[in-house]
Amino acid sequence: MKVPKTAAVAAVIGLALTASGCVGDDGPKGNLAIGIKFDQPGVGMREPDGTFTGFDVDVATYVAKELGYKPDRITFKQVYSNDRELLIQYNEVQFVAASYSINDKRKEKVDFAGPYFLAHQDLMVRADDLTINRAEDLNSKRLCSVTGSTSAENIKKNLAPKASLLELGGYSECIVALKDNLVDAMTTDNSILAGYTARKGNEGKFRLVGLSLSSENYGIGMKKGNTELQRKVNEAIRKMVADGSWEAAVKKNFGADYKYEPAPGLTTGS
């Protein structure tokens, strides 16, 4: 059966509005899909009971509220370090808040709002291992990080080119490898590592070396060219910082002893 051109166009428009969460007189329609990590305690974590916790979760929930979405209208989808751009480009999520460091390579594929957090790359080792105290000590060691992480690239290119690198799908897998003595250290942002050391069951088993091997500005990634969404997300981040919710979320998720940087000034979008 031949579909009239006007009907076909209307159907396409209707699908597009549904996919993007169209806005009517009473606010946005449908659910908002947000990409987060599921395996980063303190940052983005899917708990055994199905709830979500972490700083990125709190930021994403606050932003969603400012966009008109209540918590029961948010669908959190799992993203990995190496597939964040793909999920954005193929409209699987509307935006990603997943310890997503802003860099020029990524900005070729997606746009960012923020930054909303400044982390520093560090190393985590077993608590009884005193042989690793600087990045150069990794040259004779086994290092774990996740596939697609900027941290692993930084170590291999700039700091310890002779390190034996094991890249796994998630940070939880690196934790198991470190615990089982399959690797000597793992590397990523200090915020993520702090979450793991404080996780119930890990107390006293690991330590952070205390390095600042890089500065990682976390941003919220979204499809290129969506300047209106970028503007609204930036406004939400500014409001979260101004009303104290940002600092409260940092302290709640990373603990009172975590030495965090002040909220960074926004450098992307308007």
Features:
single chain, 270 residues, alpha/beta, nine-stranded mixed β-sheet, disordered N terminus
Describe the structure concisely for a colleague.
The chain is built from 9 helices and 14 strands.
Write up what this structure looks like:
The radius of gyration is 20 Å and the shape is globular. The longest helix is centred in the N-terminal third of the chain and has 16 residues, at 5-20. The strands form 3 sheets. Strands 3, 7, 8, 9, 10, 11, 12, 13 and 14 form a 9-stranded mixed beta sheet that branches. The protein has a 3-stranded antiparallel beta sheet with strand order 4-5-6. It is 34% helix and 25% strand. Mean pLDDT is 88; it is low at 1-25. By secondary structure, it is an alpha/beta fold. The chain starts with a helix and ends in a 16-residue tail after the last helix.
- The total count of helices amounts to 9
Overall geometric form = globular
Strand content: 15-25%
Class inferred from helices and paired strands = alpha/beta
Q: Based on the structure, what is the oligomeric state of the protein chains?
A: single chain
Q: How do the SSEs run, as a string of H and E?
A: HEEEEEEHEHEHEEHEHEHEEHH
List segments where confidence is low: pLDDT < 50 over at least 5 consecutive residues: 1-25
Distance between the termini: 48 Å
Number of separate strands: 14
